Amino acid sequence: MPSLLPYLDPVNARFHIDFPRVSEDTSNHIKSRFPFSVISESDPLSRLLEAQLLTDARSEIKRVFVLLQKDEYLLTGDEIWPISNTDIDEYWWKAFSSYSNREHGGDLIILDNQISEDGALLRLRPLFFCRTKQVFFHPLCHECGSLLEQCHDDDLLMSFGLQPYSTSLKRYLFCPSCFSLSGRSYFYTFSLGGADS
Questions:
Q1: Which residue in 37, 108, 157, 192 has the most C-beta neighbors within 10 A?
Q2: pLDDT grade, residue 78 (50/70/90)?
Q3: Would you say 124 and 150 are in contact if contact means Cβ atoms under 8 Å apart?
Q4: pLDDT tier for residue 25 given thresholds of 50, 70 and 90
Q5: 50, 19 contact by CB (below 8 A)
Q6: Which residues pair with 18 in a beta bridge?
C-alpha cells in the first residue's frame, strides 16, 4: 500500500512537504485538536491545509494546498439519499480525475506512489502525527508490531459487530497479520459511536 510518509521526511528526502503548525509552542499542540494550519474546514468530508514544498536545505520550492480526508464524517443520516464510504471513495476518484485533466490547466501536483499503473488514484496508508516528537508515523499493532490497515471487508466487520465499510460512514483500522494468524484483531476507530460494539 502506498504511503505519503517518504514525502514528509525532512531528513532523508531531497524535497518534502511541510505543514505549518498552528503554534510552535508544544503546549498549544496538546490543547489544540488539530495542530496544522487549516485554510478551510467547511466541507463535511475534507479539510484544506496550507503546506510548503521544501528542499532538503529547507528552501521553499512552492506553497501548496493539501486536500485531506477528515478523520470522521459528521453527516446526518438521510434515508432518501444515504451517503457511505463507497460513495466518498468515488467522490475522491472523480475529483482527482477532474483536477488531473490537463485541459483545465490546474496546478495539481501528483506523487508517483499515489497513482496505479493504469493512472487510477490509490489509497494511501493511514498516518498518525505525534505531537510530542513532531513526526508522522504509520500506526502499528500493539500486539505484533505490524502496520494497521483500514478494513474494507464488510463481512469481517459485521462478524465482529461493527458497521460495514460499504454502507456506512464508519472506518476501522485493524491488523491483517494478527487476523491471518489467529483469526482475531483489535479494531480502532476515530471515535466510538452508539452502534459500535
A1: 157
A2: low
A3: no
A4: low
A5: yes
A6: 52
pTM equals: 0.83
The residue among 92, 21, 88, 77 whose CA lies nearest residue 50 is 21
H helix intervals, 79-187: 85-100, 154-159, 176-182
Determine the Cα–Cα distance for residues 64 and 111; give it in Å rounded to an integer. Answer: 14
The residue with cell 491471518 is 180
Residues, the chain, total?
197
Retrieve residue 107's grid coordinates: 496546478
Q: 123 with 150: CB under 8 angstroms?
A: yes
pLDDT band with cut points at 50, 70 and 90 for residue 193: confident
Within 8 A by CB and 6+ apart from 170, the residues are: 85, 162, 163, 189, 193, 195, 196
Q: How far apart are CA 56 and CA 12, in angstroms?
A: 8
The pLDDT tens digits of the residues spanning 89-140 come to 999 888 888 877 766 556 788 888 888 888 778 888 999 999 889 899 999 9
Query: How far is Cα 187 from Cα 178, in angstroms, rounded to an integer?
Result: 11
Strands 46-55 and 173-174, bridge-based pairing: unpaired
